[in-house]
Each structure stands twice: as C-alpha cells, then as structure tokens.
Amino acid sequence: MSKGRGFIKEFKDFINRGNVMDMAVGVIIGAAFTAIVTSLTDNIINPFISLITGGNGTKISGLAIPVNDSQSIDFGAFISAILNFLIVALCVFLIVKAFNRMKDGGKLVRRKDGVEEVEMAPVCPFCKEEVNVGATRCYHCAADLPAPAEVTFEEA
C-alpha cells in the first residue's frame, strides 16, 4: 500500500508543477486560436481562392477532381489545411520570439554590421542587482559605483 501512496504523491507533484499547468493553458489557447485561423481560411481566404479558380463561393470546387459519385480528390481542402498550418505556425513563432525577448529582459538590437546584440540593463558590480541608467550608487547595497551605470550590449 505504501507504493500506491508514493505513486499518488508523485503524480500529485507532477500535476502541480508549473510546466504542466502552462502546457494545459497553452493547449486550450491553441485550440481557440486554431478555430480563429480556421475561420479566417474558410471564410476569407478560401472564397478568395474560389473566386480566382472559378468555384461556387463556398468550396474550392475548381480544385477538386471527382473520383466517383461520393468521393473526390480535393486539392482545395489540402491547400486550406496548409494555409491553416502556416498561419498558426507563424503566429506561434512570433509569440515564442516575443516571449523569449521579454524573458531575456533586453531588447534585440541589429547593428549596421549585421551582428545582432542584446541590450542589457546596467548591473551593480558588487551585488549583481540591476540599477538605473546613470546611477552612481546602488539602490540595493548602497555601494558607490566606479562610474555612472551604463547600458551594455552582448552579442546574441
């Protein structure tokens, strides 16, 4: 019976980890976002493609090849699925890129020579806490800074 309690405790610890909750929220938001993207492709992009290819306005019929009375090879549905995927993938990429930039605490700066650098906030050399630009004394440890605090750049 002690093995069962250990398993239950281990499972409870697993569920209570932040990563599991973040993943659950991500799946729910992803499903809602996929519905928005599907609506965009079904209600805006597909009718536009249908207009160009000569379909009936509700389905991309100009891109379907009938096989028999009940089946057809529907290239329009395949193109719609590809568009859905590309739109969702692009949005996820942009969200992850923005989140990573925010998490790093700096701004990505592109220099003239093409090298990407991250703008880093000034840090006290004694306590390693962030200080305001131009500060001559650390707010956290009250140490006198050797020079006024300046922004630094690190290569990304």
Description:
With 156 residues, the chain is an alpha+beta fold. The chain is 52% helix and 12% strand. The chain is built from three helices and five strands. The strands form two sheets. A three-stranded antiparallel sheet has the order 3-4-5, covered by helices on one side. A hairpin with a 5-residue loop joins β3 and β4. α2 crosses α3. The longest helix is centred in the N-terminal third of the chain and has 36 residues. It is elongated. The protein starts with a helix and ends with a strand. The relative contact order is 0.07. The mean pLDDT is 78.
Q: What would a concise description of this structure say?
A:
This protein is of the alpha+beta class and 156 residues long. It is built from three helices and five strands. The strands form two sheets. A three-stranded antiparallel β-sheet has the order 3-4-5, with helices on one face. Strands 1-2 form a two-stranded antiparallel ribbon.
